[in-house]
Each structure stands twice: as C-alpha cells, then as structure tokens.
C-alpha cells in the first residue's frame, strides 16, 4: 500500500488571506508556505482561490431499459474557450447551507429533467479543480423510469433553459468516446456506470 502524506497542524503556514472579489462566487488571494517532501518549509508562494459552494451531480438511470437521462444547456465557460457552449451533462446543482447532497440530487432532477428519483447510489466525492477552487462534487447514479422522459425544463427566475433527453447507455458511452460528451462529472458517471452496470441492474431490477 502506498502512503499518502497526511498534513499536520504545522505543515501549512497561512501568512495572509485577502478577499479580492465577493459576489455569487468569491475570489481570495493567499500568501502561504507549506511543508516540502524533502523536509522543511518551502518558500512563500501566492495563490488565487475560487471560493464556491459544493455541488451535486446525478446521472438518472433506468436499469430496466438500460437508459440514462442527460441534460443539455448553455455554459459560458465553454463559450469563452471557443467551443460549442451547449454541453451534454448530468443533472447538477449547488448545495445550499441547510441541504444534504441527496436532497439536492432529488430537487435538481425534478427541476432540470422532470424526474422523480428512487434509490441513489453514491459514486464519488471529488475535487474537480483543487489547484484553484474549493468546490467538491458529490456524484450519484439515481434510479429512475425513463418512460416518457424528456423535454425542456429549468427555473425561469434563474435563467435556466435545459433540455432533457433519453439516451441508451451504449449511445451515451459512444458519445463519450467520440468527444461529444466532454465534461468531467458526466464522463466519470458514465464510465463508473459502464464498469458497474451488471451490479446496478441486478440490485435495482
């Protein structure tokens, strides 16, 4: 087994933390030093940090029909990068202070895809970009019925315009392989479901 470094109380020295921007998201600047693998403390470094709520992503899956429900919506980050800004994704939403991740998964599935979820199968909790962001993703596969699913959803007051569609799992995996699905949570969820498909179907059928 490989050992992973476990930080102690004295292994990071925060010299200064400054709030540079405060809005829906926040941006902080740190001056800090940290412990080095070869021993001792490193030189002072400066890092900017994107501070935002944790999020939940859930892949609705119908084990009976072997189908998933994916949503498509405009994403400003992809637009700014010069790519097609309409991305095919899992259902997703930010966690408010008083919510549990499972509650968010169920709420967002109704708001974004019109789906009531049954059992939720935890996949992972991970940092999508730990070099510059506090965000963690709680990722699930959620049991659903895909019969009659699909349509346009989203909250008008939040400027959402979200199209939900039913995909066979095989077609979704093909879209992943050829690059039509190109965002982290959806890639991870689909790959995990492909690896665990038999176990999920046996448990849920």
Automatic annotation (TrEMBL):
CDD domains: NUDIX_ADPRase. Keywords: Hydrolase, Magnesium, Metal-binding. Signal peptide: none annotated. Its EC number is 3.6.1.13. InterPro entries: NDP_pyrophosphatase (IPR004385), NUDIX_hydrolase_CS (IPR020084), NUDIX_hydrolase_dom (IPR000086). Its cofactor is Mg(2+). It holds the Pfam family NUDIX. It comes from the Bacteria. The keyword tRNA processing does not apply. It catalyses: ADP-D-ribose + H2O = D-ribose 5-phosphate + AMP + 2 H(+). The keyword Hydrolase applies. Residues 51-189 form the Nudix hydrolase domain. Acts on ADP-mannose and ADP-glucose as well as ADP-ribose. Prevents glycogen biosynthesis. The reaction catalyzed by this enzyme is a limiting step of the gluconeogenic process. NCBIfam families: nudix-type nucleoside diphosphatase, YffH/AdpP family. Belongs to the Nudix hydrolase family. NudF subfamily. This is ADP-ribose pyrophosphatase. It comes from Stutzerimonas zhaodongensis. The lineage of its organism: Bacteria, Pseudomonadati, Pseudomonadota, Gammaproteobacteria, Pseudomonadales.
């Amino acid at each position: 087994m490989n050992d992973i470094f476990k930080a102690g109380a004295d292994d990071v020295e925060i010299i200064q933390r400054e709030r540079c921007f405060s809005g829906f998201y926040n941006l902080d600047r740190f001056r800090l030093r940290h412990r080095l693998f070869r021993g001792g403390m490193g030189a002072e470094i400066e890092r900017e940090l994107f501070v935002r709520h944790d999020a939940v992503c859930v892949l609705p899956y119908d084990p009976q029909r072997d189908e998933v429900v994916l949503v498509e919506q405009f994403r400003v980050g992809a637009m700014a990068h010069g790519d097609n800004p309409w991305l095919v994704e899992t259902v997703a939403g930010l966690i408010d202070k008083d919510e549990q991740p499972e509650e968010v998964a169920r709420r967002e599935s109704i708001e974004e895809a019109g789906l009531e979820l049954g059992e939720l199968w935890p996949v992972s909790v991970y940092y999508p970009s730990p070099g510059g962001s506090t965000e963690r993703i709680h990722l699930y596969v959620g049991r659903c019925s895909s019969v009659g699913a699909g349509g346009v959803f989203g909250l008008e007051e939040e400027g959402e315009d979200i199209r939900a569609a039913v995909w066979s799992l095989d077609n979704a995996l093909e879209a992943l392989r050829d690059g039509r699905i190109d965002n982290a949570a959806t890639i991870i969820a689909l790959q995990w479901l492909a690896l665990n498909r038999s176990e999920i179907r046996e448990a849920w059928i």
